[in-house]
Amino acid sequence: MQKTLAALAISLLLAGCAHQPPPPPSPPRIEPTATQLDAARRASLDATELASLLNKPLYQMQPRELGRYLAWQQQDQPALRQRIAALARKNIGQPYELFLLGEFPYETYDAQPLFDLSKSDCVVFVEHTYAMALSASWEEFFWMLQRIRYRDGVIGTATRNHYTEADWNVANRWLVQDVTATLGAPTQPYHQRIDRQAFLLKQFKIRRDIPVQNFDDVYVAKQDVAAVEAQLQDGDFVNVISSRGGESWASHVGLIVTSADGSRRLLHSAEPQVREETLQGFIARMAERDARQAGQNKAQLAGFKFLRLNEAPEVPPMAPQPRPGRS
User: Fold this and answer.
1) What is the pTM of this model?
2) Residue 27 falls inside a structural domain
3) Contact by Cβ (8 Å): 262, 247
4) Are strands 187-194 and 273-278 parallel, antiparallel or unpaired?
5) Rounded-to-10 torsion of CA 25, 53, 134, 141
6) Is residue 24 part of a domain?
7) What phi-psi label fits residue 210: left (phi over 0), alpha (psi between -120 and 50 degrees) or beta?
8) For the domain that residue 90 is a member of, what is the CATH number?
9) For 36, which of 29, 170, 200, 255 is 20 to 30 Å away at the CA?
C-alpha cells in the first residue's frame, strides 16, 4: 500500500511539473447594441449591468442576476421561439449531472434541490429553458418551473412528471403539442406499461394507490428524420426514443434551434455539458455508439418524437398546495 501511495504521489508531482497547454482564449467581450440598451432602459437596467449579464453564461448567474436578465430579455426579444433559442444557447457549456432535480427542501424523498442553475440534466435543461422564456422575473421563473415540472403544479415526488411520454408531454399540452404523426413521415408504434405505484415504492419508498396505465405512442424512425427536419421550428421539444429487447421509451430530451444556414439542430444537456449539434450529427454519433455496444444488450437509438411549441401558451393556474400529512 505504501509503495502504491508513493508511486501515486510521484506521478501526481510529475504531472504537475509537466508542461500544460495554455488555456483557450477568452471569448471576445460583448458590448450592448443601441437596441439592447433601449430594452435595458425599459427593464430598468443600466448599461454596466447589462454588459455584465451579456458576458456571463446563465449557469454562472446568481438568482437575482437571472431575474434581471429575464426582465431585460422579455423587452429585447418579444418572440417566444427566438427567446427560447437564445436562452438555450446562453447555457451552452453548462456542466451535466444526471438525476439533478428533486424536491428539497420541500420534501426529503429526493434530496436534490428544487433548482440548480449551475448544472443540468436533459430534463432540467429543457424545463429551465421553457420556464425562463415564459418569465420576466426570478419569482415568475421559479413558479413557472414548478408548473411545468409537476402535475397541476403541486410540488411533490409523487406528483412530478416522471414519465416523459405519459406524464410530461400530456401534462404540458398547454405548452407543447405532439406533432409526430402529422409531419408526413412513416411512424413506428410502441407500447408502455406504466406502473407508477411500483416505481414510487421502489425508487422513493412512497406508497400510493395508482392503477397501472397502458400507454400507446408513435415515433419517427431515425432513418426517416431527414425528410421532416425542415418542418421543425425553434423551441420545439424533442424526445429521443431508445429501444431494447422489444421495448421503447424516451431516454433523452432536447430542444430544436435553427442555425444561420437554416439547418435544424438539437440543443441538449448530455455528458459532459450542454451542447448544440445537427440532428444528423447526433444520429451519426449515436450510430457509432450503438455499433461499439452491439451485442451488449444496451439500448440503441430508434428514433424521435417531436412536440410543437404552442404559439401563445396559456399557462393553467397552479392547483392549491395541500398541507403535508402526518406520518
Assistant:
1) 0.91
2) no
3) no
4) unpaired
5) 110
6) no
7) beta
8) 1.10.3670.10
9) 255
CA angle 191, 193, 199 (to 5 degrees): 140
The reported pLDDT for the residue numbered 19 is: 47
From the list 110, 153, 145, the residue with the least C-alpha distance to 125 is 145
Q: Which three cell numbers stand for residue 134?
A: 415564459
Distance set, CA 322 to CA 141, 155, 156, 210 (Å): 21, 9, 10, 19
The 8-class DSSP code of residue 164 comes to: I
Domain that includes residue 240, residue range: 174-309
Q: Mutual orientation of helices 34-42 and 47-54 as an angle, nearest 10°?
A: 110
Would you put residue 158 in left (φ > 0), alpha (ψ -120 to 50) or beta? alpha
What does the angle CA 138 – CA 276 – CA 163 come to, to the nearest 5 degrees?
65
Cell numbers found for residue 107: 420534501
**Is the bond preceding residue 272 a cis peptide, omega within 30 degrees?**
yes
In the structure grid, which three cell numbers stand for residue 148, read together? 411545468
pLDDT means per 10 residues, the chain with 327 residues, are 44 41 70 95 96 97 98 97 98 94 93 95 98 98 97 96 98 98 97 98 96 98 97 98 97 97 96 97 97 94 98 94 82
Phi, psi of 121 (to 5 degrees): -110, -175
